[in-house]
């Protein structure tokens, strides 16, 4: 296998089209076809099923797409790391995060990073669990910051702790339930919860109710966008769930934490990456900036 062959295959796999991959790579379609055929012959396996509608990956192709993406991204990082060790902190870093962390730890971390590595390029993507973890596995993202629940990560991933924090219920200032002190008082409330698999607060709410011996909320309105949650909680009597640092930021939008005697949960914020991932100097610098921001948030807690 050659890197050029893998690059062609990854573009075909992502575009699901030989023609589109040829356009993106500025190659002819016959050249793309020939490269794929050479790769299939080398591996002794059919990678693509071709049809008039485009191409679909075989089971072998699906495995190779992840591995090939990792190899290509790691090769790029290797070139950048050598260059970074020879001089300035240049190169690219792709970082995944959730809305909660984007509104709390990220601003300070990015400002500090821009000061320490002004010539590095930082790309930030919003991570939706669990689908966003694919970007870590295939190498498209260097690492990601998220809330970590017990047994959430598979064996191929590892995490670095950033900050331990409470998750709390949030409501608009005029919500009649804003004065509730126990979860039982919120049993009849309408809760906003993430779409299944898109984030963690939904399972946090359900688990909090079960731990309190209560039936979890039913008929929840589910969302995939933080903006949807913000708009509905700030304009209706629906309740949401947020980390305490995020809840403090949401006060500017008229949302307040419901002052329950016990938080919904205690959750770890952490950085997640592949176990095999080796951070470049630029990535190491940004990780240090995230850790500094996390310590600053922790120092502000009462």
Report on this structure.
The chain has 302 residues and is α/β, with parallel strands linked by helices. It has eleven helices and eleven strands. The protein has helices at 3-15, 18-25, 29-43, 59-86, 99-102, 106-116, 133-137, 201-211, 226-235, 244-250, 281-300, and strands at residues 48-51, 54-57, 91-97, 120-126, 143-148, 157-172, 192-194, 221-223, 240-243, 255-257, 265-274. The strands form three sheets. Strands 3, 4, 5, 6, 9, 10 and 11 form a seven-stranded mixed beta sheet that branches. Strands 1-2 form a two-stranded antiparallel ribbon. A two-stranded parallel sheet has the order 7-8. Helix 8 links the parallel strand 7 and strand 8 (221-223). Helix 1 (3-15) crosses helix 3 and helix 6 (106-116) crosses helix 11. The longest helix is centred in the first third of the chain and has 28 residues, at 59-86. The termini are far apart. The model has no long low-confidence stretch (mean pLDDT 87).
């Amino acid at each position: 296998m050659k890197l050029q062959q893998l690059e062609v295959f990854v573009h075909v796999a992502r575009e699901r089209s030989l023609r589109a991959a040829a356009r993106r790579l500025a190659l002819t379609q016959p050249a793309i076809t020939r490269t794929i055929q050479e790769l299939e012959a080398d591996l002794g396996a059919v990678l693509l099923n071709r049809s008039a509608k485009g191409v679909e990956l075989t089971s072998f192709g699906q495995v190779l797409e992840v591995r090939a993406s990792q190899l290509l991204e790691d090769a790029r990082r290797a070139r950048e790391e050598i260059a970074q060790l020879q001089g300035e902190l240049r190169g690219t870093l792709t970082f995944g995060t959730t809305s909660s962390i984007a509104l709390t730890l990220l601003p300070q971390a990015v400002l500090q990073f821009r000061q320490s590595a002004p010539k590095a390029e930082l790309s930030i993507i919003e991570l939706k669990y669990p689908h966003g973890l694919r970007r870590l596995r295939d190498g498209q993202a260097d690492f990601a910051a998220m809330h970590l629940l017990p047994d959430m990560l598979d064996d191929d991933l590892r995490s670095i702790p950033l900050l331990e924090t409470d998750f709390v219920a949030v409501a608009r200032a005029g919500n009649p339930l804003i004065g509730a002190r126990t979860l039982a008082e919120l049993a009849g409330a309408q809760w906003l919860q993430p779409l299944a698999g898109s984030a963690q607060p939904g399972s946090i709410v359900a688990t909090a109710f079960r731990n309190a011996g209560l039936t979890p909320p039913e008929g929840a309105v589910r969302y995939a966008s933080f903006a949807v949650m913000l708009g509905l909680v700030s304009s209706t009597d629906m309740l949401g769930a947020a980390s305490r640092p995020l809840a403090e930021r949401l006060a500017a939008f008229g949302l307040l934490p419901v002052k329950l005697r016990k938080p919904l949960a205690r959750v770890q914020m952490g950085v997640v990456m592949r176990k095999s991932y080796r951070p470049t100097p630029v990535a190491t610098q940004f990780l240090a900036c995230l850790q500094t921001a996390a310590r600053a948030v922790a120092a502000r807690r009462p």
